[in-house]
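Worked example 2:
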Amino acid sequence: MSAGKWARRRARRALVQAVYQWQMAGGTASEIEAEYESNGSLDKADQAFFHELLGGVLRHTAELDALLAPVLDRTIAELSNVERAVLRLATRELESRIDVPYRVVIDEYVELTKLFGAEEGHKFVNGVLDRLAGTLRPVEVAARERI
């Protein structure tokens, strides 16, 4: 894996923690980002990627939740805080970062759910993101299925 992929992986890990924290305690993107920079969480991380996704999730939460709602079997409010953070981040990345293959987005956030979430939470997240990818990236998903 290239250095860039590792830096992005570190950023995603910090992002899950940052969005989880924001969901629990609030705060602005700049306050949260400053905290993560000062505590070393963003050392060796793709800081531009962190900044972009954190701001995107905090500014567009309602839109992200609206994209998620049709592919969920429960309401956003019924999700665990980890699942909610992961799904919001993955939705934002699927929606705004078409340079990242959808399978990479799904795999990365499933792994983070295994790390931070409930025992079987990763299976739920995987299913939701598979359905969501079909909605947000239909051409990419169809191309992959033909391979």
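DSSP finds eight helices and no strands in the chain. Residues 3-146 form a domain with the N-utilizing Substance Protein B Homolog; Chain A fold (CATH 1.10.940.10).
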